[in-house]
Amino acid sequence: MFEQVRQIFAFAGPALGIWLSGPIMSLIDTSVVGTTSSLQLAALGPGTVMCDGLSYVFMFLSVATSNLIATSLANKDEKEAANHLARLLFVAFGCGMAMLAAIRFSSNFFLSAFVGAKNSGIVPAAATYVNIRAWAWPAVLVTMVAQSASLGMQDSWSPLKVLLVASLVNAFGDILLCTFLGYGIAGAAWATALSQYVAGILMLTSLKAKGYNPLAIVVPSFKDILQMIEIAAPVLMTMLSKICFYTTITYFATSLGPLTLGAHQVMIGIFTLFSVCGEPLAQTAQSFMPELISGKTRNFEQARTLLKTLLYTGAILGFSLASIGVAVPFLVPQLFTNDSAIVAQMHSVAFPFFWSIVLTPPALSLEGTLLAGRDLGFLGLSMTSCFVCGSLLMKIFHKLGLGLNSCWWTLVLFQSARLTASYTRLHSSKSILKECAPAATS
C-alpha cells in the first residue's frame, strides 16, 4: 500500500494541476469581474454554466480517450493506441465546431430562458461572455482529448506544464483587458478563449514529441463509432446527469435574485476549484486499473488494494480541502466581492458547502474505478437516479421557500448518494474487482 500511495501521488500530483486549470481560470474571471461590478459578477453565473458546464458534457470524450488508450497500452498495442487517438481528435474537432455554431445562434435564447424575466438585466453581459468564449470550443475539446491521451499513457507532467502556461496567459490577459483597459466581462472572456487556444497548440506539440502525429487525424469507421458509443453513451448519461444537477442548483439560485446569485456564483466557483482536486484520484484509477483488471498482467487483489488506497487518500483529501475551502469566504471574501450582502449569503451556506467538498474525492475514486472496469451501464443509471431524485428534492425545498441553503444541502445529499451507490456496487457480487465477475462493457 505504501508503494501504491507513492505511485498515486507521483501521478495524481501533476494531474491535479490539469483539473485545477479550468476552475482557476473561471475563478480568475470571477475575481477580476466581481471586484468591479456586482451585475457582471451575477452574469458570470449563467455564463459559466453555458461555457464550463457544457464542456463537462463532453467529458465522455475524455473518458473514452483515456480508457481506450490505457487499455491498448496495457495490451502492449501502441499502433492501436495511435489509431484511437487519431479518430478521437477528429471527433473532438467536429464536436467543437458544432458547439461553436450552436452557441453563437442560441446563447441569447438559452440565457433568457435560464435567468427568467426577473433577472433579464444580466442577459446582455452574460451573452457577451458566452459568445466570445464560444470561439474557443474547438480548442477546448481537442485539448481535452490530447490531455486524456497523455494521462492514458500515464504521463501527467506534460499536460501540467502546458496548462501552467495557459493559466498564466489567462491571468495576464484578465488583468490587462479587465483592470487596465476596462473591457470588463468581455475582456475576461477573450483572455480565457486565448489561453484555451494556447493550451491546445502546446498539447498537440507534446503528443508529437511522444511520437504521435496529432495532424494525422482519421475519420472513424462505422465499427469505430460503435466502439466509441459503447463507452461514450453511458458516460455521456453520467456527465449529463452531473451537469444538469449543478445547472439546476444555479437555476434555483438565479430565481432568488441577483445578490443571492452573486453569492452562489462565488461559492460554486470555490466548490468547483476544491472538488476537482479529487479528479486526479479518478484519473489514477482510469490510468492504472485497466492493467490490473483486463491487461496481460491482471491482478485483482492488487486492484482491490489500489481502490482501498484511493478511498483512504480521498477521505483525507476531502477533509483537508473542505477545511481550506470553507475558510475562504470568511477570511478573504474581498477577493471576489466587496458587497456585504453577498458576503453574508456566502457565510450562510458554509456548513453544507464544507460537507459537499468532503464527500467528493472518495466518490470520484469509486466512480473512476467503475469507469476503468467499464461498468458503465450501472454508473449511468446510478447517476441519472441521483439527478432525478436530487432535482425533485430541490424543487420541493424551493417551493417551501428555504432559500440558498436548501440548494447546498441538496448537493450534500447528491454527493452522498453517488458515494453510497458506487461503494455498494464495487463491494457486491457483481463487482468488476471480483475474479469471477466478467468486466462490464455497457
UniProtKB/TrEMBL annotation:
The chain crosses the membrane at residues 85-105, 163-183, 228-254, 266-289, 310-332, 344-364, 376-394. The keyword Transport does not apply. InterPro entries: DinF-like, MATE_fam. One of its GO terms (molecular function) is antiporter activity. It is a multi-pass membrane protein. GO terms for cellular component: membrane. Keywords: Membrane, Transmembrane, Transmembrane helix. It comes from the Eukaryota. It is found in: Membrane. It holds the Pfam family MatE. Its main location: membrane. Belongs to the multi antimicrobial extrusion (MATE) (TC 2.A.66.1) family. This is Protein DETOXIFICATION. The lineage of its organism: Eukaryota, Viridiplantae, Streptophyta, Embryophyta, Tracheophyta.
